[in-house]
UniProtKB/TrEMBL annotation:
InterPro entries: DNA_mismatch_repair_MutS-lik_N, DNA_mismatch_repair_MutS/MSH, DNA_mismatch_repair_MutS_C, DNA_mismatch_repair_MutS_core, DNA_mismatch_repair_MutS_N, DNA_mismatch_repair_MutS_sf, DNA_mmatch_repair_MutS_con_dom, MutS. One of its GO terms (molecular function) is mismatched DNA binding. Residues 609-643 form a coiled coil. Keywords: ATP-binding, Coiled coil, DNA damage, DNA repair, DNA-binding, Nucleotide-binding. This is DNA mismatch repair protein muts. GO terms for cellular component: mitochondrion; nucleus. Belongs to the DNA mismatch repair MutS family. The keyword DNA damage applies. Residues 878-894 form the DNA mismatch repair proteins mutS family domain. GO terms for biological process: mismatch repair; mitochondrial DNA repair. It comes from the Eukaryota.
Amino acid sequence: MRISQRCLSGRTSYIKRCNATLVATRAIHRKRDLAFARSSCSHTLHQDAIFCKSGSTTWIRGAKTKTSVKITPLHQGALPQGTPVAVEREDGPAYPAVIQGARNNMKKFAHCVVLTRVGGFYELYFEQAEEYGPLLNLKVGKKSTNAGIVPMSGFPFFQLDRFLKILVQDLNKHVAIVEEFEKDAEAKAKSGGLQYDRRVSRIITPGTLIDENFMDPFENNYLLSIQCDPEILEQRNVDAENSKTPEVGLAWLDLSSGDFFTQRTNLDALGTVLARIAPREILLDQALQDLQDKRLTALCRDDRHIITYITSVLSDLASDNWLSMIEAQGERPAVSNFSALEIAAGNTILHYVNTQLQGTKPRLQAPLQRREDEFMALDKNTIRALEIRETLRDGTFQGSLLHAVRRTVTKSGSRLLGQRLCLSQAVSPSMSLDEINSRLDLVAEFLENPDLHHNLLVLLRDTFDSLRLVQKFSFGRGDADDLLGLSRTIQVTDKISDTLWTHQASGEQISTAKPRWLKFESLLHRLSLDGPMDLSLRILNTIDEEKLMEQHRIEDSEAAEMVELAEDVLNQEGEQHLKGVPKSVRAQAHNGNGIGKSVDAESNNWIMQRNASAMLSRLHRKLDALKEEKDSLESRLRIELGAASLTLRWTPKLGHICHVKGGVKERASVAALRSVRILQSSKSTQSFHVPEWTQLGNRTEEAKHRIQAEESRIFATLRAEVVRNLIEIRRNAAVLDELDVACSSATLAREQRLVRPILNAGMNVNIVGGRHHTVEAGLMKQGRNFTSNDLSMTDAERIHLITGPNMGGKSTFLRQNALICILAQTGSYVPAEYAEIGLVDKIFSRVGSADNLYADQSTFMVEMLETAEILRSATPRSFVVMDEVGRGTTPEDGVAVGFAALHHLYHVNKSRVLFATHFHTLTDMVQGVEGIACYCTDVAESREGDGSWTFVHRLRRGVNRESHALKVAGLAGLPKEAVEVAAKVLRTLQNMPPLPPPNLPDPPLMALRTRSHRLTSDSSLLSAGESA
C-alpha cells in the first residue's frame, strides 16, 4: 500500500543537501520517532512511505532542491523527540463500496432511517434492516462480504411512497434518501470504474413532505417552529404568581404549497393556536428540553404532536438565507413588522428546511403575519366538541361539519374551505365585515345565475392542483406530466376569466347587484395571464403527449418485470404476493407483459416534439438519415449474403450485431465474408459483427445521446420558466380556490335551502328555524325530519338556561347555533330561515365527558379544566356553549360549580351563553334575574295510557323538571327488571321530605331553597353580585 505522507510538523526543510541526507538517515535509524525541526525556509521535503506486509516502512526522498540560508539561525545538537506519524490502517477487509457508503451515511445521519438506491431497489443494511425490515413486512436477508455477514432488506423503487408512508407518517421517523448520481468519465476513472456516486439527496420528516403520494390532498401539511425564551420560562417556574405569561413566537409553513405564516402569542393561548394550525411536526429549541417547567412541551405533546428538538437560529431576519427562500419577485418582509421571537422562529424553520432538503432552496411565499383580532378564535376543545374536523366518538371525517358542507371540486379549494372553517390561523372565520360580505356577495351571484355557476364548476373540474405543482418545480422535482397539468390549468384559468368578463358585460346584473361586482372585479384584476399563457403554449408546443403515454407504458412494463421477479422470489419462500404495486404495473405483470417479452433496444421514446428547438430538429433529421443508412446497409447485406432474415440489432452484451436465421447455406455465406467476426452460432441462428454496422451504430447512438441531452436542456428551460412565473401562477391559483369555495357554498345552499346570514357589529343573535348540518343529514338518511329551533339573544336575554329530558335535543340546539355562527363568519350560507348575527370573536364549547388517565386527569378534572379556560378567556363578544357543567361530581357540588360558572359568565365575562343543565335548582336560583331566560324541551305522553311517548324537540319558554331518564334507559335496552327497580327508587326519593335550608353567614349570599320555596330577587346571588 503506497500513500503520500508529510511529517508531523507539516513542513520539513533542509539547509544543505548533505544536512538533509543526514536528517533523513537519522530519522530512519531512529525508527521514525524523531520529528524534523522547523526552519524559516520555504522549501519542503516531500516523502513517500511504503508499508510492507511485515509492517516496516521504507522512506524515499523526493526531488533534490537547493536552498541557501544563514548559518546563525540553525539549530544545533540532537533533534527533539516527536510523536510518531499516525497513519490510518485498515484492520481487516473492507465492505463493498455500496455497503460501506451506506454504513457511512448511517453514522452521519444517525437520527434517520437510511434508504439506499441500488439499481431498481431501495435497500436497508445492518441493524436498520433487522429493526425496520419486520416492521415494513420485508424479508431480511444476509449478504456475505469479505468483511463479514451484512443483514439487508429492500423493496422495488416504485414502492417508495408506500414504505415512506409507514416510516414517516405511521412511525414518525426521519428518512434519509440516498440516490444514485451517474459519474462522468473522469470521476469514474478516479473511483476505479464505479458508475454511480451515492449521496443523501433529501431527509424526509413528517413536516417536510412535498409531493409524496400518501399526502392528504385536501389538507395542509404544516411544519411549525415555536420560540420562547428559556430564561423567562425558568423564572416563571420559580415565581409563578408574580411572573407574566411568557410570549411565544410562531412560524409555520407548508412545503407542498409554499404557504408561510408567523404569529406572536403567549403561552396560555398556545394550546388553542396549536389546535387551529394542526402541525404535522413541531420544532422546539434544544434548551427547552432540559427545563424544569414542562408546560410548553406538555402543550405540544397534549394532542400527540411530533416534536423535533434543534438548535435555534438567532440571526437577523434580513439575512440572505431567509430572503433566498422567498419568492424572487415578492415583497421583501420588513424587519420592523416582526417580533424578535417571530424572527427567531422563522430563521429556525427555514434553516431546518434547508438542512432536510440538503441545500435545495424552496420558493416560499412571503411570510404573512397573523393577528388574533383578525379571525374568530376556536380553542381545541371547541373544535373537537363541535366536530368540525372529525367526529367526537369515532374520530372519522364522515359525520364532521367539514364533510357535511364540502362541495368543492378541486383539491386546493377543499384545503381553503377547511382553512376558513377553523383549520388554519391564516383564513379562519373572519372578523372583517367587508371580507365576510364580499364572500357572501360572490355566493349570491352564483345562486342568482345558475348557468354561470354550472359553467364555472365544469371548468374548475378540469384544473389541477397548481399550487402544489408549481411548488414541485421550485424544488426541481416536476416531470412532463406536471408540466402538462400546469399548462391545462392555465388554459382553463383563461377560459374562466373570459367567462366572468363576458358575464359582467352581458348586462344580466341589476343595479342592486352592483356591489357584488366589486368582488368579481377584484378577483379578475388579480388574475395575471400574460406570462403564464405564453408558458402554457410553449409547454403544449414542446411536449408530445402521445409519446409521453408510450413512455409510461414502457416504464410500467419495466416495473412489471421487477414485480414478476419479486413475486417469484416470494413464491419460492411461500409468502404472499407483493403489496403496494400500482394497478397499471400489476395488470402488465399479470398479462405477461413483463419478463420474457423482448424489447427493441434501438427504439427510443422521445417526449418532446421534433420542432421544440432548432437544434432538436437538426438532430432528428440527422437521426432519420442514419436510420435510412441502416436500412440501406441491411438490404445490401441481405443481398450479398443471400439471407433474407438478416437484421441489424443492438444488444446490451454484444453491442451492434447482425443476426441471421437460417440453415447451413446462410451460415456458409456469412463465413465467407472476410471482415465478419462470428460471435454466437447455433443450428438455426448466427450473430456476428460487421465493421460498417458497428461504425454506423455508434454514430446512431451518439445522435440519440445528443437528442436526449437536448430534450433535457429544453425540459430544464421549461422548469426554469415555470419558476419565473411562480408568483403569477400562485395568485391565479388563489383566485381559482376562492371561486371553488364560493361555488361549493352556492351548491350547498341550493341543495339544503340555506339562507344568507346578516352580519353586523352588534351583540344580538337572531336565528329563525336554525338547523344542525350533520344531524339533519343523518336523519334524512333514515327518512326522518329535523326539528328546527329559534334563538333570540338580546341584552334582555343574553344567557339562556335550558332544561329538558335526556335525548331531548338540548346538546344539538347548543351546537347548531355555534356552528351557524362559524359558517356565517366564513362567508357561507347557513341552515336557517333567517339569521342575523352580531360578530363573534371567540366560540367556546364545553360538552360531553371524557377523561385523560395518561395525564392523571379524571372526567371531572377534564370538565373543570375546560370550564376554567372558558371563564378565563371569554369576552362580552364571545359565544359560549356549556352543557351540564358539574355533572361529574355529587349533586350538591355540581349545583355549586354550575352556579359559580353562571355567576362568572354573567358578571365578569358578560358573554352570550347557552347553558344546558339537569340541575333544576339552578333555574330557581336565577329566577327573576335580568338577562337570563329559561327554555326547555319536552316529552309528550300518549293520552291513550298505553305508556307510549315521544320527544318534543321544539324549545319553549319555561323549565322542565323531569329528565325522563328511565324512559331513555328503557329505550337503550336496559333490562326491564332494572328499569322497574330504578322507578321504585325514584318514587321513594321524590317522596322524601325536602332538606331544610342551610345556615349561611350574614349577610347571606343567597338562600338555597327546595322546590317548594322560591328565591326572592333581592336574595339572589346574581343580583347580589350585580349590586356589588
